[in-house]
Amino acid sequence: MATYKKGLNGPASGKVGSVIASSWRDINYFKGHNKKSTKEPTEKQLQSRAKFRAANNFLSLVNECVQLAFIQNPERMTGRNAAQSHILTKAWKESPEGGEIDYPNVLISFGKLEPVQDARVMSTPTGITINWDKKAAKSQQMIIALVDTQRELVMESVAEINRQAGEYTFDLSNTDVDFNFHVYIGTISRDRKNASNSLYLNIIRYPTP
Questions:
Q1: Interval 144-163: pLDDT, tens
Q2: Distance of alpha carbon 47 from alpha carbon 43, whole angstroms
Q3: What Pfam families does its record include (predicted)?
Q4: Does domain 43-206 match CATH 2.60.40.10?
Q5: Distance in angstroms (rounded) separating the CA atoms of residues 153 and 15
Q6: Which of 166, 180, 154 is nearest to 116 (CA)?
């Protein structure tokens, strides 16, 4: 891919010969057409594709969280792309089956704010409750996600509750389905300019056996 500056008539757009002219976040660039390979993929290529697919599948579930709260990333990178890079480089573990996401090391928010303190999660007869130390600035809000990767389901509260509340409950009293949730909790400033690194609390089952 090559970048270019605007000409007298503005940036180019569309197909130009064997390349495509486009722009993203004020960056104008050319890129070549994708060509389908006739070669069979190598084992390494298959593993790489599976790794990217696993990361993207997970991020599709928490997309609202990472797009909003993965803030301290390079200026030209989206929150989703930064979160994907983190999974691929710091939250992946190899296994005999080829590898898998290391969920305790995944981040759904990222930044320089002080992380939540003394956070706890518990399963009750009617839902899942999360508590944390509520001593914090009024300008901070919570990023919370419960992710069941087997059911490909997420329950989340994205900047809906103040950090000073100290508690949030997900009501599950109207379901008879069993869940196994990975629990993540982070914070974001009201002006959306900063966030904290999220914490992984645990994997919790609902209803409790």
A1: 999 999 999 999 999 999 99
A2: 6
A3: DUF6266
A4: yes
A5: 39
A6: 166
